[in-house]
Inverse folding.
């Protein structure tokens, strides 16, 4: 069973001392908030207490460099649901890396992963192409190595959820990948 409180505690044990950052259950939209006058620590706020949302927001934090972690939402633009095809393509371009990291975190936690195009009310792009790009990025990261923070969390998650470590490309399962790729 995957309880978000366990993930919050695991993140705290793994990162708080070195990065003064906490994973926080939010009510609505996720957001990253750097420390300020009102709060002495950085907050990764995830949506509605969902485990998948927490993994996704952690992935963004793991991708962000030190400078970006000083800015609200890492200084990225965000265009909400209802994006045009061009806006959606730009969104997917910046989401490939964090979603590949999220997939790795999901594997380490033994938790199901699904790519998120996050554009239910807008123009759709080919979900299979996007998933293929995320898959390809994940395999490259596994083969070439993750950054130190990501590796640290992958190891902690694997140990906590008793999953094999380190990750291998063979563990990445995407049923129908070849058939979908051939159809592209």
């Amino acid at each position: 069973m995957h309880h978000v409180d366990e993930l919050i505690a695991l993140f705290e044990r793994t990162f708080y001392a070195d990065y003064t950052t906490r994973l926080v259950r939010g009510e609505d939209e996720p957001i990253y908030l750097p420390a300020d006058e009102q709060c002495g620590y950085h907050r990764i706020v995830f949506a509605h207490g969902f485990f998948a949302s927490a993994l996704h927001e952690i992935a963004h934090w793991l991708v962000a460099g030190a400078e970006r972690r000083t800015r609200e939402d890492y200084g990225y633009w965000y265009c909400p649901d209802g994006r045009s095809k061009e806006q959606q393509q730009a969104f997917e371009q910046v989401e490939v890396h964090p979603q590949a990291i999220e997939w790795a975190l999901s594997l380490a936690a033994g938790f199901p992963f699904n790519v998120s195009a996050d554009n239910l009310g807008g123009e759709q792009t080919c979900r299979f192409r996007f998933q293929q790009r995320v898959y390809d990025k994940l395999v490259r990261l596994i083969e070439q190595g993750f950054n130190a923070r990501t590796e640290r969390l992958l190891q902690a998650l694997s140990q906590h959820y008793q999953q094999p470590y380190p990750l291998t490309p063979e563990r990445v399962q995407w049923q129908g990948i070849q058939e979908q790729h051939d159809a592209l």
